[in-house]
Amino acid sequence: MSISRRSARRSVRILGVAAASAALTLGVSGSALACNINDFSAEATCDGTNGVINVKDIDASGTSATISVFLESNGGDAKQVGAEQTVKGSREGTTVTFSEDWKPNAEYRVHVKVDSGKIQIDKDITPNLTTPSTACKSEESSSPSPSDSATPSPSESASTPAESDSPAPSASESSSTAPAGSSDNAPSPAVGDSNLAETGANSNTGLIAGLAGALVVVGGGAVWFGMRRRGANSGS
Fold first, then answer.
1. Around Cβ 219, how many Cβ atoms within 10 Å?
2. Residue 126 has what pLDDT?
3. pTM of the model
4. Which pLDDT belongs to residue 211?
């Protein structure tokens, strides 16, 4: 069975379209995996009380890149931050860190250089990195303020009442001792011999005798009432 020219041409056309599609797909995927400047980003953050600049590479091809960071001043490089660092990107992202005590609203230029076969990059990350408006907090500036404001007030308040309370007892002692010194020149009787020298007017003998008499009267009344009640019960 012979193949007509029309069928052969159709088959060749189909094969050509398929090859072109495959080449286009490979070209797109290759360009997607190729390293480019858009795979890099920079950020200024704080590591505790220290400032750092982080550069992240999300190049899935893992191509090696050299990162340099420069502090900008008046449109030029004022200094280089640390030494150059090499990074190999990944799909999840690989980060390199530069220690820098950055100031608020400072500007840094981050340069990326790649020299790997067909891939050639020698560009800056745009726009330049601008640090936050607030610097990293230091322990020295944060710790003294609460302690200084809290300590003086309790110590002063605690010391004030102590001084105000101390004169009170001394005044009372002086007032209590004053009458003793202002007594007459006549000798006062001894405390233990006062009841023996007196006639008994100040003793408790009269009070005890009165209580005894009252108890006797109450007891006699109780006996009389009991006998009367018993006689009434026997008579009935």
1. 10
2. 96
3. 0.48
4. 84
In eight-state DSSP terms, residue 74 is T
d(CA 111, CA 39): 13
Give the chain's domains with CATH numbers.
36-130 (2.60.40)
pLDDT the model gives residue 16: 62
* Whether pLDDT at 23 is above 80: no
* CA nearest to 99, candidates 47, 137, 56: 47
Q: At CA 107, angle to CA 101 and CA 110, rounded to 5?
A: 90
Question: Facing residues of 50 across strands?
Answer: 47
Residue 211 CA to residue 217 CA, distance in Å, equals: 10
Q: How confident is the model at residue 137 (pLDDT cuts 50, 70, 90)?
A: confident
Tell me what pLDDT residue 67 has.
Answer: 97
- Percent helix, strand and coil across the chain, each rounded to 5? 45, 25, 30
161: enclosing H helix or E strand: helix 152-165
- C-beta of residue 108 within 8 angstroms of C-beta of residue 76: no
Show Cβ contacts of residue 137 under 8 Å, excluding neighbours closer than 6 positions: 46, 49
